[in-house]
# Entry
Amino acid sequence: MKALLLIDIQNDFVPGGRLAVPDGDAIIPLVNALQSRFDLVVASQDWHPAGHQSFASSHAGKAPFDQIDLHGLPQTLWPDHCVQETPGVALHPALDTRQVEAIFRKGMAPDIDSYSAFFDNGHRKATGLADYLRGRGVTDVYLAGLAGDYCVYFSALDALAMGFATYVVTDATRAINADGFRTALADLQRNGARLLESSVLLDSP
Ligand code: VGL
Ligand code: ZN
# Structure
């Protein structure tokens, strides 16, 4: 069983949003077309309370993209983004969600960030996604979404660690930082992930 994992395709991560990923909305037609090729489609949603400690605004004298130690974990500070009950937290309106069977939210605990759709950044708490996928008989996980160098990357690493055959659809993701994305993809390949372009899936019968 093959699952497509749509990572954080939310208003705040596309141009005009509060943590815009360059060209982030360009992936939406692709991920919409990809969905029919999968047995199961699942989405993740970054879902922070106001005042989340990953926000620079929560730390006096800090600016977005500063690095701090947050309760023992390295933390990049972000602009306020994906705050619960704001327009930016919603899945992008152009994303076709008819085939999305479940949405896994992450980043709710105020004192720890959560890039991966599987675990928080300290690997302290699981979202339940791995058990859900296993319960549905999923063996292969394909990742698309935003951002390629953060939430897609860390979700793919955890998918590998959880024993799923893991694929990243490289043209169905965009990154915050191009260099970081190259490093992330190389690291994923080293760990056993396979990279492919959406055409490989869309052109197969
Ligand atoms: C993300 C930074 C902070 C992401 C989420 O979805 O890649 N990046 N929160
Ligand atoms: Zn976030």
In short: Residues 46, 48, 54, 81-82, 107 surround zinc ion (ligand 2) (CB under 6 Å). The chain is about 20% helix and 25% strand.
